[in-house]
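pasting for ref
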Amino acid sequence: MERISVQDHRSVYERLCKDYLNLKLLTQNACHGPERLERCKQSVRQDIHSCRKLSRITQFEQLVALMEQRNLLSLLKPDLIERFVLALDTTEVGSALTSYRDALRSHYEPVRRFYLEDLRHRDRRTLLEKEVERIKLQEATEPPAVTPTAATNAKRDAYLRQRDSIYSLLQLEIGKCWKVFGRFLNVPAGELDEIEERNRQDLKTRIYETLERAEMQYDDAALDQYVGVLLKALESSRRKDLKRKIETMLQR
């Protein structure tokens, strides 16, 4: 049997990357109008487990980003697109999904290997480093006299009350350093580039989408951790003035 070279496998992987992107674009094009978007959102509501996040989604690409962030959808896991096929009643996307699945099934192991390698390159921080950071943030933000559960709920509730005001403040104040700020929020560089490309003439929208993308990394129950990351990002961006303002807002 003729052996397939590593280079050939790499070519297959790169082709599937393009096919996966095209599959998402086909689905996005089929999801035109708020009614169709709502059908798509409802089709994955049980998987997302967050009515609040779904209610804030106004574009199909935001829904895809949330699903990818929660590892519900990826190059290796395209199955949930079938929900969209049914919700949108689109044979074109259905045919593309079938072809994509066949190609993925035929080369799954080498494609999986290249995919995981790329993931490791995209995020160089180890799981241990992330866990250490999470523990430090928790220790720094929880008052010792309050139980962890109470502190978490209080911080989350305070953030939800002030969220719109915080977003508005940062949209006005972050300015041209938004991309550096986004990196400190752990938004991947590639996604920051995409945000910039979509909103070249609208700085406020770039900042808003960066904040939204960063927040999507956290479940509702973990928003207190996001608050800690947000404050730390402001400090790292040399905007302690904004950090102090937000801390004051959260105490109201």
